Amino acid sequence: MSSLDMEKLVSLCKRRGFIFPSSEIYGGIGGFWDYGPLGVELKRNIKDAWWHDIVRTRDDMVGLDCSIIMNPRVWEASGHVGGFSDPLVDCKKTKERYRADQLWVFIYRFNAKDDPGKHLEFWWGSLGGAPEEARKAAEARAAKVAKKLGQPLDSSVTGYMQLAPEDRDKVIGPSVDEAGTLTEPRSFNLMFKTFVGALESESNVAYLRPETAQGIFANFKNVCDTGRVKIPFGIAQVGKSFRNEINPRNFTFRSREFEQMEIEFFCKPEDAKEWYAYWRKARFDWYVKLGLRSEKLRLRDHDPDELAFYSTATADIEYAFPFGISELEGIAHRGDYDLTQHMKFSGKDLTYFDEESKARFTPHVIEPSAGADRATLAFLCEAFHEDVVENETRTVMKLHPRLAPIKAAVFPLVKRDGMPEKAMSIHKCIQQKFASFYDQTGAVGRRYRRQDEAGTPYCITIDGQTLTDDTVTIRDRDSLKQWRVPSANIDTIIEDLITGKTTVPGADSAN
Questions:
Q1: What is the mean pLDDT of the chain?
Q2: What tens digit of pLDDT does each residue of 13-58 get?
């Protein structure tokens, strides 16, 4: 697949009703997004697939749904109140605000135009989660200078935080053309602060949760006491989290309101290494199974200097988005840090008594933490394809059938001879099991194209032959194969195609 133009994907998401800017009629609000009719179905299907595979079909996993606002002491114990902050840099000229740890400085050296023996340096600041993500903007600025001074002699990159204080005055901010406009870094807490009750006082301060994990740890004892669980076991949760990001960007990837899919898997300390290896592989395989099969998906182990002080191992599942390689999910061996912290701050015993060994211990935790919004964006990026069909460019979203917002679309060939009535009855039949769409407007070819953009894997056409032998035509989105089947059990036929029980005749299975 050729490289994806992010602007094309964003345009398709808006045009087809996948994702809209929040509060758009009022000019929007940075870092917040709304999911449209197709987007809400896609994201729900991703969350449902995760819940089905992680919770419902496993005997060692239970679910939880914790409140968004919790006792502030929870966030003191977790370290969020004292340590959940990012270094912040302001531009004194534009009043823009940047995360200093995501501000990369690209240093280009040119020959001076009037004095070849003299060198000119440009220190351009550019934003990105990694240098690769930030490089494009810096290269564009260097290209403009190169038109006057010729090609650069050399270039290098370093983090803004790694610069000596006296060198920071040399940096040209991302949105200005002069150096010296950036302030020194200062801490900025990422939690959204609010107040509980009628009075706005320090005694009533609360926070919108920045992650779902702490609710699981706070309920560990409740689950053990009521859930008839036995170590090793996990607690899973899907829910909203909020972080007051300094620079929300890259479409929905870095937002201020987002949804997480998290597991806290509790095990014996001596078994933690084995369970970490298990979840590291299992979570990577899950994305592959649902369609992220390209070379853009990778599993990266953290270097020792990247690890949190309490972690012995962490791996990131990363995807090469159009804006750079970024994290989809992290799998962390967190040791007993979290439960120990909550015991310290709450005064409650969160140890576990093992009936078989008659031993009491603090369980170790393996945490696979995924972002539902990031997963949705990755599946959209992977699905976006353009090909040529009948001399026309076709945009098609090759979503896995399990994730597709609409599973089947039903068309009457013409709006007469009883075809609409037959088509509607088939649509209603399929609708009892899956999301189905009825469309009788326009030429069939145009209707196919609309469903291709929506990612609908199967289209069903009712025509003149249907009225004589009660068969319909199924058209496969990816292969464009068409074949006829009896209409009597069309819902079961579509179900078998979606689940992979049967495949498209004459085509490789996409499942």
A1: 93
A2: 999 999 999 999 999 999 999 999 999 999 999 999 999 999 999 9
The C-alpha angle 271, 353, 335, rounded to 5 degrees, equals 40
Cis peptide, bond prior to residue 116, ω within 30 of zero: no
From the candidate CATH numbers 3.40.50.800, 3.40.630.10, 1.10.3720.10, 3.40.640.10, the one assigned to the domain spanning 406-499: 3.40.50.800
The number of CA neighbours under 13 Å toward the Cβ of 215 is 24
**pLDDT for residue 430 is more than 70:** yes
Q: Is the overall model pTM greater than 0.90, yes or no?
A: no
Instruction: Please name every residue paired with 326 in a beta bridge, in sequence order, or none if there are none.
Output: 319
Q: What pLDDT score was predicted for residue 186?
A: 85
Cβ–Cβ contacts within 10 Å for residue 471, how many? Answer: 17
Query: Residue 258 pLDDT > 80, yes or no?
Result: yes
Q: What is the mean pLDDT of residues 476-502?
A: 95
- Residue 60 contacts residue 208 (beta carbons within 8 Å): no
* C-alpha span between 336 and 365 (Å, rounded): 6
Structure tokens at 331: 């799998």
Q: How many CA atoms lie within 13 A of 266 on its CB side?
A: 29
Average pLDDT over residues 120-133: 92
Spatial separation of the C-alpha atoms in residues 381 and 60, rounded to whole Å: 33
Architecture in CATH of 6-83+192-380:
2-Layer Sandwich (3.30)
Delimit the domains of the chain by residue range. 6-83+192-380, 85-188, 406-499
CB neighbour list of residue 252: distance below 8 Å, 6 or more residues apart: 19, 33, 258, 373, 374, 376, 377
Q: How confident is the model at residue 507 (pLDDT cuts 50, 70, 90)?
A: low
Backbone phi and psi for residue 295, each to the nearest 5 degrees, phi listed first = -70, -5
Residue 5 banded pLDDT, cuts 50, 70, 90: confident
Strand (E) or helix (H) holding 396: strand 392-397
Distance CA 254, CA 97 (A): 15
Angstrom distances, CA of residue 96 to CA of 84, 181, 182:
21, 11, 10
Q: Do domains 6-83+192-380 and 406-499 have the same CATH topology?
A: no
pLDDT of residue 511: 43
Cα–Cα distances in Å, from 294 out to 39, 46, 113, 204, 379? Answer: 22, 19, 46, 50, 11
In Å, how far are 142, 172, 208 from 121, measured between CA atoms?
11, 11, 45
